[in-house]
Amino acid sequence: MPSFLRGESTLKDPELDLLGTVAGKRILHLQCHFGQDTLSLARMGAEVTGVDLSDAAISKACELTKTLGLDATFIACDVYTLKEHLDEKFDIVFTSYGTIGWLPDLDRWADIVQYFLKPGGRLVMVDFHPVVWMFDEHFREVRYSYFNTETIVEQEEGSYADRDAAIAYETVSWNHSTSELLQSLIDAGLILKNYREWDYSPYACFRELREDAPGIYRIAHLDSKLPMLYGIIAAK
What we know:
single chain, alpha/beta, Rossmann fold, 11 strands, about 25% helix
């Protein structure tokens, strides 16, 4: 957080490569959490609106916006209900890292994406690869299906920021295969322009990771054998 407050961007190379120049663009950031990526886009000259389910996260995002003197709008709501809270069109809909796994229905999500895009607008998305979510937390055992065959309920400890934090909680999520994701976008009328995969995570947010270079984390005992990220550009 101190480095962000001093002006450092929280956006990573995969999404920056896909986003390209955003100055002057209107961007809708879905599931924006505390809004640091949203505000990083604002610093790059974009006109941004961030959306998240968490009232606490949006409150923090608004606080950061005021502290930094940036121009950004934040909305607290379920992404599925966004049409009830916003009536604007955007050049880019952006979402990244640990987002759609919390959503049970990708067809409803894809409809939200297409609804808020201008004609010619783009979805830009980077997220953790569904292969990652098949494994147990130590990446030793395939525990879950690659396909969306069940609601995944887990007892977790720690957080993505600190795996050893003294926090215990239950999570409910869904593993969406690449085909399910892409088909939801196609069915919503979007045209796939770019699909990429990366063999690393830019965050040290899993167990058993090794930092091979600054900001390049791979599963130590699997090297670069697994895809860890994917990226999408889809156009309306």
